[in-house]
Predict the structure.
Amino acid sequence: MNFAEHLKRSAVLGLAISILITLALSTWMFRAEESDLRLQHRQRLAVMHANALALAVANTNVEETGKRVSDIQKLDPRIESVIIVGGMQLVASTRAEDAAPRQLGREEKALFDLSDQIRTARETNRGEDVVRKKTVQIEEKTIGHIVVTVPYLSDGQFAGILQMKFNTTGPDVSGADIFSPAPDSYTLPALLFLAALLAGSLFRMSTERKVDFTKLLALGVFLLIALFFQQQRLERLERTVTQANQAIAANYLAAAQQYDRLGYLALPRDNSSVNLWDTDHYQRPLGLIAADGSVSAKTQAAYFDKRSGFLKRILGAIDLLGAAVLLMFLYGYAARTFAALKEHADAYTYVAPAMIGMLVLVFFPFAYGITLSFTDTTLFNEFLPFQDRLIGWANFKAILGDVNLYERTAGGIIWNYQNFYWTLLVTVAWTISNVTIGVTVGFLLAMALNTEGLRGKAIYRVLLILPWAIPNYITALVWRGMFHPQFGVINQVLQMFGMQPVAWFDGVFSSFFTGVATNGWLSFPFMMVVILGALQSIPKDMYEAAEVEGADRWQRLRYITLPLLRPTLIPAIVLSVVWTFNMFNIIFLVSGGEPGGANEILITKAYKIAFENYQYAYAAAYSTVIFMILLVYGIFQTRITKATESF
Amino acid sequence: MKRSQTFFAAGTLFIAGIFSAAQAAELVVWHAYRGAEKSAFEKVAKLYETKMASKGIKVTTLAIPYDAYADKISASVPRGKGPDVFIYAQDRLGGWIESGKTVEPIGFYMDDATRKQFLPGMLDAMTYKGTVYGLPLNYKSITLIYNKALVKKPPKTSTELVNLAKKLTNAESGRYGLVYWYTNFYFHAALMNAFGGHVFDKDGKLVLDSPETIASIKQMMKWYKQDGIMPTEPSEALVSSMFNEGKAAMVFNGPWFIGEISPSVDYGLAVLPVIDEAGKKPMRPWLTIEGAYVSASSKQKELAYDFAKFLTSEEAGLILALEGRQLHTNATIYKDKRVSGDVVLKAFHDQLSSAEPMPNRAEMTMMWSPATTAMNKVVKGNATPEAALKEASDAIQESINALRKGR
């Protein structure tokens, strides 16, 4: 089989696989969306009935409450039971064995706690002027049997909870069977696919041209099939949403007429008043059904657009994925990958355990962090479903788009130390100065230690490695103590020489200096050891030859030592830059970012955002930005120096 | 080969059997105690075991290193693991409750006798938005600790304090009349409360830049700048080294400080002075109160509550106070001769009459960093108290708004 034949076969295979992947994933998404819709529909129905009853028993006495509850329960067979709890009291119950009103039993703690939880939720939402705590609790242990709990009021004050067991498996009032759609039609996709095969067989796929007709045809057919299928399902989904809403409206009207007849709640006759029954889980009216039971097409369309926004984005991503798979086949990457896998099967088997380990321990947390950075997760909302927390690029926009770096005032420029770019600037300055100091001091000491015939070399070497051997927490705290303005040894020495003591942590520069001094102390031994090793591996005869040729000391350093140090030094510097960039301990323990957060580096800042302010997602975005910076640095560094070649 | 396999299988079954049998009545308790506190706590746990011997209950206490403790709770309990009962101070309570599935509300179990057995204010620290989440075990607050060689009679009022401290201050030789970590907001809170300032009002609104708090900072600045009775750049280490060297006549510090005092210093304890400038109101330090919480993932919550209740009983309280040197929350133990005769325990108990629990709101963690920055700015003369507190409140409010997002 020649190459062109092979290519054509992989185009057909690619088209088939990519269509399969796209259709399967899209179907999966729609199924999930529909089951979500079904769930919401059931819950909305149950919440509506619970809200209605809670409104009906507000401001009534105990006997009247019991009567109303049992009246309503008897009228609607879907309401299996209702209980009302106020504090430690079971106020009313439709179950005969409960013998309400009575005290709550020992095993009914959950009810007491639930009541307390809903009370707190109401108070929190009011006290903080934002709605963030659910005041409606829903439990559905078996499908269709929903337990919904809502607060009930007395004189406008929280009096307790009303818990309703609602059965949604029975026949619906509206009589419509909303959720049994027609089976998916795959006829058109199949026809298109066959037509493409027919058309494709007439043409030869070119190996030379990057773009030719067969490739374009494959891509076009793929897009046509995918988009057609998705559009068809989206329309079906919209029909279902509309029908579901109409069913709720019919339910509402039927129930409202019952309450009206019994004289418990009057049915509003105008469509401008708010429907207080049909609410979300925070008891805010949904606004999809007016108080008189009428449904507006406009609000429904808007509701569907809002609802399907997330789904549409996911579908777009699935299309992209499918297209990518197709392109992989068209340009032969898939075939090559497969061939490599087949050829080196043994090798891949051996590395598989390590790859799984990496996947679980490195890539998964990494991917999780990146995903988190696209949400608005904080301590207060981490329990919400992922979809509700998704906010896209907002965190990155907030971090990178905030260019309010300084302010011009009459008294001069005031820097905004909380700004990302200030912190980045400090981090870069911090990294450069530390690495420079580490390399310079390390180099000088290594040169000194490498002197031939130096006595007590072993002792010096041990002494000089000590700063590295002591845990850096301890070193950091010792240095912090030494920089104390009144009692620290550094100021004491300054005063001994008649100088003024310095308040180290007050100034931006002096505070920066404390960190650099500490980290310089910590980082030179590593550089020294690396350079010393490299120096000792330089053959002596090179120096001798240079001496014979008449090279002086400087020339030997410049043309022999430094070039030969390069392959060792550059990886060490690359590593050291990354370490220093993320050197958390020293900043955190020595200056703590003083004064006023001016000396915070990116990583300590991310820590504070996550664990002092509990803004997990924002901190994740911050960390992602740090990663991107280091990634760009790494690529750049490798390109410039070809450092990897020396390994 | 065959036989060893059989043995192995039998052994596994046997171990599994023991494990499941023990699990049925085992209560796992986490704490972060060391030394005397740990042994006293374990003694109390043993005592509970003997009391419940008829029911065959075993109490397993596990000491977790303090710095890993809170994170370990946050990570394990919401996922259905971890202890039945755990002990921690109230400052993390709000965060755990807000994130949910960590601390079990126990108001339902509490009877009036239990509610009444505690010293005043203790249960408030365990109450979050009207719901009780834990039983208070012991409390810590700062008080006045003085060097008896330098101070004959501890000052009762701020005027007395300043007069006495001025006499004992000699900045040249590094001697100061009063040393405490005044830039740390935890220590400053005593003064803030004297003036009637708060971090959050009762509805949870941030009120850090209130006139009362500003006045309290001005009072602190008067001591530091005008009166010159306090050293610059205070820190925990500085306070203890100066006190031990006899260079600090009086310090404001808590029970943890007692162990750091060198044997050569003869110290006394007294209630924090009344602030004349605040209308003769006493300094009211913040109380940090350790509570015993029932874990939300516990399978035996009622038993766990019963154990927590036992920890707060008079019997357990006496052991924890006398052997563990803890300031227990049970009011009756302070009537015991051995407790009231103990200088340290008595002194901190006396301070309790003017003290208030540190807020347990989740938002408190956001306060520390900006508040410390504000304090440092004021002390270093970089900003007026008004401006510094305004800036700090704005920063805290911004963090709070980021957290409290509407749905």
